Queue: 2 jobs
Job 1
Amino acid sequence: MALRFFIGVLGGSFVPCQVWTTGFFDKNVVGTANAFTGGLGNAGGGITYFLMPAIFDSLVSRQGLSAHVAWRVTFIVPFILITAVAVAMLICCPDTPTGKWSERHLHAQQNLAAHGVTGDVVDLPGNFADSKSSPGSESPSYGSTHGKLEYDATGKVSTVADHEAQIGEQQMLDTARGEVVVKPTFKEAIRVTFSPQTLVTAGAYFCSFGGELAINSILGSYYLKNFPTLGQTGTGNWAAMFGLLNVAFRPLGGIISDLIYPHTGVWGKKMLIHGLAVITGAFLIAIGLIDSHDSHTMFGLIAGMAFFLEAGNGANYSLVPHVHPSANGMMISSSSFMCSMLIAVLGIISGCTGAAGNLGGIVFAIIFRYNGKNYGKVFWIIGVMTIAINLSLSWIRPIPKGQIGGR
């Protein structure tokens, strides 16, 4: 129990990882970035199918350890890998593209000043002092450490202003206010958590990632039931392919989303999510109704379903950064539902979306459990639920009306 608890906590690192990636990339490419990081994370499940049993078998056959001891020793390998990666990240990786997290506001302030922004006040996260510049001052006041930052009204465009900027000063300030991640009040957190836009990303991820988790857990058993001649090792290897396909299919969802974004805007990203989900649902229904005992047919249907399901996961995290961007620590995924909800306190939008995905995994796993070995029936049930949920969410605007930033 203790080991499973800490594995769940480790899985929760997926949430801050996606928030961190979102902060490093522009919205034109953030879908690709999030999809690649998420895809590699999901693919780890497939790699584990191959790697851990191989290590275990080696310890038993070559080192002479008993099975009772070997499975425990096997965990030393992921411990070494995880610790090495964690230490390397702490030493080598910056908090944000502009340096320390505590100083993230300075870059936005400097950019606004470079655009010749005049006479308005920008609220920034954290405790910054009210600091006002003297009238006519040519440079913005950087303030101390407790309040707001104010830009002086020069009435002139700085010589270093960006001549490509075609929006007004107030729009620039509004955009900065909307894009900088802030610590929400409890009231703001509740409003964001239960907004229709959060429901869209959470509902879609409930179906896609939830379905992936549940299917991953039973796919080997399903193959063994329909293809007993393959044996446990053979069916396990084929089941592992479902997770490994994340290396290509999840990033592809983010790439496609980013490609259509300049032409369709945020609505295009949202419709891509629902479109992929509906096709995924159709594949799930086909798999369940056919319940094929021909390996070529079954593996082909599973691969086709994996393409749309996993691409949907990637497309979802292309939309997430656009929704309530100043709260974009609040919407992502983890390996544990409870860990996701705990992390959601720190990052609402990312946490809510990811928690919904893990909740979906729990719900679908319960359905599998109460249907015994009738795996095909559960496949088409999940397919119907996926189509129904996504169609019911398709009418909701991708971002709140009047939202500042995230477009």
Note: The chain has a mean pLDDT of 77.
Job 2
Amino acid sequence: MEKMNTAMTIESTTSAFTSNSASTTISIDNSVDSRNNEARVLKLSEVKAAALCLADAFAKDDVAMYFIETPDRTKKSAAANWKLHVSILEYVVAAHCMKGLALTIGPNYDCVALWMPPGKNMDDLCTILRSGMWRLHYQLSTEGKTRFFKEFLPLLHDTKADVLGARDDDSWYLVYIGTKASARGKGYARKLIGHVGKMADAEGRPCYLESSNDVNPVIYGKLGFEMKKKIQLTRGKKPIELDIMVREPIKGKEA
């Protein structure tokens, strides 16, 4: 899916992430200048700030609200819905900090991208417990749980396997990308996608995403993604459509 203050320490450190594949190593300079203009890896201590960026970006997204604004939650207040929305994103960001690649850019968590690298997933019990994902079984309503666990997750899993085939477990999966409304137009999302795109090119691997915004396929197309199919969530008042897009590796490019 997609959309898009703390005091800075004056020291330069390097964060590294290595996937199950020995050929995938990410090294990002976390210097002060880099924090403003280049991708850096999120730490677990930054989960709440990163989740607020995504919550802002997806505040009016039909898919994000699909599990929250359900017929059996009509009496919940807007504040309660917002709290649940933020909580869901906190769990997802935490899980990607643990098992995936969580990136941010800008001086104030202005854009956040959550990637699942080749050979990785966040389905193990340890990650589910540590990230807080298990709480959704109690925080979502009965209909919300049905939509999330029995419709949404299986549909995304099966579609990705169908589209990528034998490469399903050998691809970069862009699970979320969101930019704060106040930070749009600065090229942040392009940089976070391009950062991983360069690595995918060097490795000869595709990048995969689902888009829930009608405008985004054109934007993603300029970044090398191609439309593969459309899918729908159908338990709401009207179907919600998602575009499935894949970026094939560009030969001759290096990270």
Note: The beta strands are 14-18, 25-29, 40-41, 101-105, 111-116, 172-179, 207-211, 225-233, 240-247.
